[in-house]
Amino acid sequence: MRYSIIGGDLRFARLRDILTADGHSVRSFALGAEKDEKTLADALGGADCVILPLPMLGKNGTLNAPLYEKSIALEELKPYISDKILVFGGSVMTETPFPVTDYFRREELTVKNAALTAEGAVRILMSEMEIALTDSKIVIAGAGRIGKLLAVKLRALGAEVTVTARKEGDLALIRELGCDWCRTENLRLCAREADALVNTVPARIIDASVLRSMKKEAILLDLASSPFGHDPDEAAALGVRSMFAPGLPGRAAPRSAAMAIRDTIYNIVNERECSG
Predict the structure, then answer these.
(1) Mean pLDDT of 81-107
(2) Phi, psi torsion values for 167, nearest 5 degrees
(3) Which of 2, 6, 12, 74 is 20 to 30 A removed from 91 (C-alpha atoms)?
(4) What pTM was computed for the model?
């Protein structure tokens, strides 16, 4: 199969190499590398499958291409996209000028992405905290995929872990994982003894009352997507050391993240061939 990869971060540079090693013909553009084609037309010409970034668009509404010095509007791809070409994009949140299959809606990828995010968070905590995980008390805000997987990894490394949730089912699962639990509305109370507070909820649940309750030496690690879980200016004003860690899979384990995207796209293509 002939693949074209347009835009993306280091994950997609690795994806290009992986697909090539699998025996496919691969062209790329806007990956900031010598292997890129000179023009968008060259990169898309003859493609059977086009792979766009995760997330597909950046903050300005153009293609997410942090390794490229210029911007690319989706409309620029339209002249080269025929009905026969499969186009994949990650976390597609807007209407597109041509059909795009959102590979980030696939469970196998979201689970793997959560696992890589959790592993990256562990690395950050180990490097930023002044105490060992085995001596630490860590509060995780949110019991989604990332929160649960992170809790398991931290527990395995000897940390004392508390996870917050709102749903009774999530609270029950937290208990079965061997972690302490706290209702999200009581986050201020359980954050008081934490050496680190890790947020996974994309909503402003960490307000001034929570920040004031935290220990002086504690850190706040925000893994959530926009609008994030806290205001960094507010945290700084209250003396809390906070940090954001978006896109952890691409930074902590780009090759593993690329393999997960590849496997997901292969699954979608195989399913279409079988159903066709």
Answers:
(1) 96
(2) -85, 140
(3) 2
(4) 0.91
Give the number of other CB atoms < 10 A from CB of residue 70.
7
Contact 156, 175 (CB under 8 A): no
Residue with tokens 């947020």: 199
How far from each other are the two terminal CA atoms of the chain, in whole angstroms? 17
Angstrom distance (rounded) from CA 241 to CA 236: 7
Residue 79 exposed, middle or buried by CB count within 10 Å (0-12, 13-18, 19+):
exposed
232 contacts 242 by C-beta, under 8 angstroms: yes
* Phi, psi for 3 (deg, rounded to 5): -105, 145
What mean pLDDT do residues 92-99 have? 95
In sequence order, what are the residues at sequence separation of 6 or more whose Cβ sits closer than 8 angstroms to the Cβ of residue 158?
A: 132, 133, 134
For residue 276, pLDDT over 80 is answered with: no
Long-range contacts of residues 145-149, Cβ cutoff 8 Å, at least 24 apart? 145/110, 145/111, 145/114, 146/114, 146/117, 146/118, 146/121, 146/200, 146/223, 147/200, 148/173, 148/174, 148/177, 149/114, 149/115, 149/117, 149/118
Average pLDDT, the chain: 95
